[in-house]
Structures are given as C-alpha cells and as structure tokens.
Amino acid sequence: MADVKRIERPLSPHLTIYRPQMTSVSSIMVRITGIALIPITAIVVWWLLAAATSETAFAFIDGLMRSWLGDLFLIAASWAAYYHMLGRLRHVIWDFGYGLEINVALKLGAGMFIGATVLTILTALIV
Description:
It is found in: Membrane. One of its GO terms (biological process) is tricarboxylic acid cycle. This protein has 4 helices and no strands. The protein is mainly alpha-helical. The longest helix is centred in the N-terminal third of the chain and has 32 residues, at 22-53. The protein is elongated, with a radius of gyration of 22 Å. The N and C termini lie far apart (75 Å).
C-alpha cells in the first residue's frame, strides 16, 4: 500500500475549536449551579442543626448568615437555585418536544439568565 500522509486533527471537538453558544453555556451553567447547590445545602443543614443543638452554635452561624457576607452568599445561592430550577424546567419542556427550534432554544437560554436574576431580585426585596 502507498503511504498516506495523515493530517493531525483532534480526535474530538474541543472548546478551543467551537465558539460558545447560548444553549451550551446555559447547559454548562445548569451543571455548575447544580454542583454549587451542594455546599449551599450543607450550610442550610448546618444552620438547622445549630438551631436544634445549642444557643451558642446557632448564634455563630446565624450571625455569619446575617452579616454582609452572608447576605451576599444567600443572594448568590438564590440565583443558583432559581437558575438551576429554570434549567430543569427547560429540559422538561424539551422532553415534551417543545422549544427545540434554534430560535426558541436561544430565547429559553437567555430567559433562564434573565428569569433567575429577576426572581433573585424579587426574593431579595420581599425577604
């Protein structure tokens, strides 16, 4: 057989080859917020356990959560929870076969960012 010169190409697509799209960015963000909700849940459980165990333990975590750092953490946690919820809702819509057109998928992705931000601001104003 004749020697065939092969061009060195990547074996699979890589992030440096393709530019990010709204659907891929929103999907990655759903995964990131899902992982971020794990330590957020642990801190809520810590707060509840401290409330159930002793007054000094509760005073420590409650003081931490009522500080400016705690407020910032709770706002970020709210945004992550709302974003993750909207991402799961988007997948339920897709599972029913709706919103699979490219323009609708782009609007749903943008709507997740906007919706999570609006819901977080409403939560911060109400609470």
